[in-house]
Design goal:
heterodimer; A: 490 residues; 17 helices; 0% strand; globular; B: 195 residues; alpha+beta
Chain lengths: 490, 195
């Protein structure tokens, strides 16, 4: 035993940290025991668990091909509408003056907002040591990436001459002209390109150990080779994990302020203008909260079917679903508070234009139906999550998510078109109606998202296998068998 | 040709559970073996203190990357809008610091993230699609459900904390599924830099 003491003396710095590690593991197990629902149950041993989580990549399901084809057709529609926009210009859209921004910017703000919950779930929660995020973070991060692909397409299409998109980037051009960094639009370019790049790096780094597992489990030489290349030669050595852990946490830490900054910067596109309905200091937090809210709805819309089709009930449990429902209730309440603040300040400021825009044009104007639908979907429907039965009902979760998904689009529409179509001078008011190109771009972008997401389900490990195995290890070591409470709640 | 037992190199042990692997690491340390490296399917911070691994210093690289990004982003904006093509935009000062801070922040984050990702790749010498250890039978399961230990040994079969046969025996006693005799020289196997 003297030698063991010698070890302790040899690594004095490391000792203290080991204690922390153990208490984290025990804490996770304690929390799992206290919480109503287990974060995982009926977990098989590491080998079968890996095979369970990777099997969708080797076997096709009946429902996958029809969905892939349908979304592929929507992608064709999207491409066609884009081609029309390229050839005929923005005139193919319903935009007019004063409604110079309409569906294009509505879709952009909506999609970029949806992306936010992915980073919120994966980065915010890793920093807060919320281990339940392990099984859903890959879904959420992937959603972020694909939502950002869609989001970045719309402003580019809206340029009018999209083939000159590179003029947005500061490069030494022969014209001698630079982007104007005092305008909010180059801020958008910086924010979105950074957000996409950091999200991609974070996503890929998280994938590396799972790609290594796929490399070592894949049937057939070619799959092994392809996954092997993407796994970069990961072998899971103690030295690799030691640096990986810190780099991954640092990337999470870097992605976290992006959740706040990106939609804040997007909201400045509106807030720094004079337009009633836009010119407000509440916009950055209001947009960020709405973004996370819509993204959480999207996460549920994606994981509820995936959980059923791929039989992931033992890994994505009621603990995850009801936690997301609680987060939706919280962010939805913050959003409702923002709506109230907007209306109150419109009255309290005494500004007649603001008063008209907020308290007359929105509830009673030409888009009143959209406004009331927005209020119902975003404020009323999530209130059912005060009841535990609703938080744990798959059907209720799905329906509310659909409402919020649509309601948040309505909110972006009301903010943009609802404010623009009734500006200062009644003589310049103009009604806006979308054309078929606008509608095709909206539904086509949803199709592109589904298309990419289905491809992800088929070819990329959809659950962070390595993190789930770590979770299983901690549950086991906390004196707890993975089978907590015997059977699955529902 | 794998070198014979007793020559300098590494011996490997395969374990079915993390616990037995940790027990074997402890036993090897007690016996004086110091050049240990493990291969696990998931992150095990428990190993750090045992193997004497310090916290990664990659954070400094990330900080440096962030600083470079910050200077670069602000510099580009200053060069473009203040120096090379001063533009009066709505009567605002030509050098409008608040307006420049947003893209500066984004540039900081972007370059810090690049440093974290590509720094890690360089630090770990990845991608490295093949290493001699991959040729060991069953090593592929290190990414799935098996836990491996690589022990650095010297040629001296009887030396404390250095003999390969002794290390294999310790690992077998701690519950190793099987062990593999000397595989290549230290540093040539696996990812190197075990300590």
């Amino acid at each position: 035993m003297t030698e063991a003491t010698g070890d302790a003396g040899r690594f004095p710095v490391a000792r203290g940290r080991a204690v922390v590690v153990h208490s984290v593991a025990e804490g996770a197990a304690e929390r799992a025991a206290i919480e109503e629902y287990p974060v995982a149950y009926d977990l098989p041993a590491d080998g079968p668990l890996t095979d369970q989580l990777l099997s969708p990549m080797w076997t096709s399901s009946h429902i996958w091909w029809p969905l892939f084809i349908v979304s592929g057709l929507l992608v064709v529609l999207f491409l066609y509408a884009m081609a029309v926009t390229f050839v005929r210009g923005i005139g193919a859209w319903g935009n007019n003056i004063p409604v110079a921004w309409a569906y294009g910017i509505t879709d952009f703000v909506w999609w970029i907002g949806i992306g936010h919950a992915g980073t919120f779930i994966s980065a915010f929660l890793i920093l807060l040591n919320q281990r339940w995020r392990a099984s859903i973070n890959r879904f959420a991060e992937t959603m972020t990436l694909f939502a950002l692909v869609n989001a970045s397409l719309f402003p580019l299409l809206h340029l009018g001459r999209p083939w000159f998109f590179y003029w947005l980037i500061p490069y030494p051009a022969t014209t001698g002209v630079w982007p104007n960094f005092k305008s909010s639009l180059p801020w958008d370019v910086a924010a979105i390109s950074t957000y996409f790049t950091v999200s991609l790096l974070f996503w890929y780094l998280g994938l590396v150990p799972d790609l290594a597992a796929a490399r070592d489990r894949a049937p057939g030489l070619w799959r092994r080779r392809i996954y092997g290349i993407f796994a970069l030669g990961w072998r899971g050595s103690s030295n690799e994990w030691r640096h990986y852990r810190v780099a991954y946490t640092l990337l999470a830490g870097l992605a976290t302020p992006l959740v706040i900054s990106v939609h804040s910067i997007v909201s400045l596109d509106f807030a720094i203008t004079q337009l009633p309905g836009w010119h407000s200091t509440i916009f950055p937090p209001y947009f960020v909260v709405g973004a996370i809210y819509s993204g959480l709805a999207m996460v549920l819309l994606l994981i509820l079917p995936a959980r059923r089709v791929f039989r992931l009930d033992n890994i994505i449990t009621m603990a995850h679903l009801s936690n997301i429902a609680k987060l939706m209730l919280a962010t939805g309440s913050m959003l409702a508070y923002s709506y109230m603040c907007e209306a109150f300040m419109a009255w309290y400021s005494g500004d007649p234009y603001e008063h008209y825009a907020m308290l007359v044009a929105r509830p009673l104007g030409p888009y009143a139906v959209v406004f009331w639908l927005m209020l119902f979907a975003n404020v009323v429907t999530p209130q059912i999550f005060w009841w535990k039965r609703m938080r744990t009902s798959v059907v209720a979760l799905f329906i509310v998510s659909l409402f919020v998904f649509a309601g948040m689009w309505c909110e972006r529409f009301i903010i943009i078109v609802g404010s623009l179509n009734r500006d200062f001078l009644p003589s310049s008011w103009h009604f806006y109606a979308p054309t078929w190109v606008d509608l095709s771009l909206l539904f086509g972008s949803i199709g592109l998202f589904c298309f990419l997401f289905l491809a992800f389900l088929r070819w990329v490990p959809m659950v962070p296998v390595s993190e789930v195995k770590r979770l299983r290890f901690e549950l086991l070591r906390g004196g707890q068998v993975p089978r907590i409470r015997g059977s699955a709640p529902r | 040709m794998p070198p014979a037992h007793g020559s300098p190199g590494r011996v490997l042990g395969e374990f079915t559970t993390a616990e037995s692997m940790l027990a074997a690491v402890d036993a090897l340390l007690r016996e004086g073996y110091r050049t240990l490296e493990t291969f696990t399917p998931f992150d095990m911070p428990e190993l750090d203190d045992r193997l004497g691994l310090r916290r990664s210093r990659i954070g400094w690289l990330v900080a440096a990357g962030g600083f470079v990004g910050m200077v670069l982003a602000y510099g580009v904006q200053w060069w473009a809008n203040v120096h090379d093509y001063p533009l009066n935009s709505g009567g605002r000062p030509v050098h409008a610091v608040p307006a420049f801070l947003l893209a500066t922040f984004e540039g900081t984050v972007l370059f810090a993230a690049f440093a974290a990702f590509f720094g890690l790749m360089i630090w770990l010498r990845l991608p490295k699609l093949w290493a001699p250890i991959d040729e060991v039978d069953g090593f592929g399961r290190a990414s799935v459900d098996r836990f491996w230990i690589a022990v650095g040994t010297t040629g001296d079969a009887s030396g404390a904390g250095s003999g390969g046969a002794r290390a294999e025996e310790i690992m077998r006693r701690s519950g190793a599924l099987h062990t593999v005799g000397a595989v290549g020289a230290v540093g040539a196997v696996g990812t190197g830099r075990g300590r």
